[in-house]
Amino acid sequence: MKTPGFSTIMLILGLTFLYLPMFILVFYSFNASRLVTVWAGFSTKWYVELFQDEQLMGAVWISLRIAFYNASMAVILGTVSAFALDRFGKFRGRTAFNSMLTAPLVMPDVITGLSLLLLFVTMADLIGWPMERGMLTIWIAHVTFSTAYVAVVVSARLREVDRSIEEAAMDLGATPLQTFFLITIPTIAPSLAAGWLLAFTLSLDDLVIASFVSGPGSTTLPMVVFSSVRLGISPKINAMATLIILVVSLAALFGWWFMRRSERERRASLERFGTS
């Protein structure tokens, strides 16, 4: 029997370190005891109580809506920004634009949240908007930092795109806009899907920034979980985390399947283009 190498052992230890806590959390979500660290038999009652908790389910619905809107807008803005940086070459203000676009990647969440809070308060005093902080202000705040992540992902993909295909399309009579939607977008579709999933996850996971820009009627799921954990961990949180892990795993699996399919179709089209 061949002895596992150092790389294999480190890979196993790393995966165990990452995923063992999740398996323990899933296991204890079926615990009948109210104490999360004491096993008292198998039970699904916490899942039943979870769906009966109006506050928690309301926070889930708010978080999902904000995450969906945030991911969709971040993909649009991030794609446009990445396209401008990659295809427009050097233009006046390019360095400043690139710096402002990537600044949220290295900016601490506390600084981002506080600056956005001051911005919203100042705007409310000057122009009367926003009158109150809620889902809209959280959405704007999340789009602010999510766009940077999407732009990085899409920009890396754009640099790998074969420009000759786009040039051939325009030589055949396609307008730049048609080329963008019919050639470029399908080619970078895997990166768009990856950016959307990343932005969705970042929004769903955010606590610090949402705490600054949220209002009384817009409590997100991380804020509810954090508040309940400070008072003692409820087994309903384990059940909620298990469902989130399940949904995220399915979404990641679908994203992997979609990106693999798109990549396979792209290679097939390149082969047909090369042989024609």
Could you characterize the architecture of this molecule?
This protein is mainly α. The chain is 78% helix and 0% strand. It contains twelve helices and no strands. Helix 3 (54-87) runs parallel beside helix 6. The radius of gyration is 23 Å and the shape is globular. The mean pLDDT is 87.
Can you tell me the overall shape? Answer: globular
Q: Oligomeric status of the shown chains?
A: single chain
Kindly state the percentage of residues in helix.
over 70%
Number of strands: 0
From the alpha-carbon coordinates, what is the Rg to the nearest angstrom? 23 Å
Q: Please indicate the percent range of residues in DSSP E strands (runs of 2 or more).
A: under 5%
Averaged pLDDT, please?
Answer: 87
Q: Are there runs of 5+ residues with pLDDT below 50, and where?
A: none
Number of helices: 12
Reported for the largest beta sheet, the result is: none
Order of helices and strands: HHHHHHHHHHHH
Structural class: mainly alpha
Cα distance spanning the termini: 50 Å
